[in-house]
Amino acid sequence: MFRMVIEAARCLDEGVISHVRDGNVGSILAFGFPVHTGGVYQFVQSYGLDAFLARAASLAETYGPRFLPPADFGATLQRASAAPAKAPEAPGTRTYLMAGTIQADLDDGVLRLTISDPDRMNAMTPALADDLCARLRSLDEGVRVVVLSGAGKAFCAGANLADVLADPTARSNGGRMLEEHYNPLILAIRDLPVPLITAVRGAAVGVGASLACAGDLIIASDTAFFLQAFRKIGLAPDGGAPFFLTQAIGRVRALEMMLLAEKLPASRALEWGLITRVVADDALEDVVTALARDLAQGATFAMGKVRQLAWAATHSSLEQALELEVQTQAATAASADFEEGLAAFMAKRPPQFTGR
Predict the structure, then answer these.
(1) What's the mean per-residue pLDDT of the chain?
(2) Is 316 exposed, middle or buried (0-12, 13-18, 19+ CB in 10 A)?
(3) Which of 33, 48, 125, 194 is most exposed, with the fewest beta carbons within 10 Å of its own?
(4) Higher pLDDT pick, 276 / 18
């Protein structure tokens, strides 16, 4: 617990967090800090600043300087506690945080999309969700595989709470932000015509966990963990989490994640069938790159149809699933890739698929 508080102290000192309220709520929602403490900074204030600093100094003597808070932490904490709250906006207006970017790189048919706001552990904002959604809805014809990842040491630490605090109607109409920004992103992922690989390192929290679990292939570093901490601040899971979790690991385990709000490490997520593979942290990029290149060289038109079948199976009857198979097989049998596959088989040579 003290180690987490020290990290939060550095975030405050470096300006990543400007008000103690944001840090208190974020530490509970994103990192599972005990809710009864009121959050990291409230814990310090309840513990007593002088007592906390003395305890930190004692721990530093035993375990090293990583337990030392910034030298002026006390003054910084007082300033952040006294910082005025943002003035309410006029009714009907919204100003959302513009932090972070979606980085895009296309190479040999592999489109890499990276949520890039590492200082905030790639926390998602409506602007980022809209950008990512637009990119997924307008793929270039040369894209044959999409890889989604986060910059730095985290995949995505969930929704940036600053947006909720800045929106004067977010609490009176909590579903609007989902309806306008996050739900369209999840549906854009569902409708992708090509395979999606999610490369998960570190925290995948809240809507970040939903994005990770929406992948067709979910490759996790051994540092990854998945967390649904909504109930710790009195909210229900969103971003499709109840759907994805229940479909993947069943009702009982899904409810365990959502009700207990405990971190699910990558190793256990693999055992439960939530993710595809776990690899060493330093091997994550190489493994994902190899998989993406292998898929990109394949019959990606047919793979897109495979995605359609799998998504439809989550809500179809057997009769509906069989009918969709008929339609899908008709489309793939008429594709250039199928013609090439047959020709390559007969000639006993590797196929050269084009994704058409």
Answers:
(1) 84
(2) middle
(3) 48
(4) 276
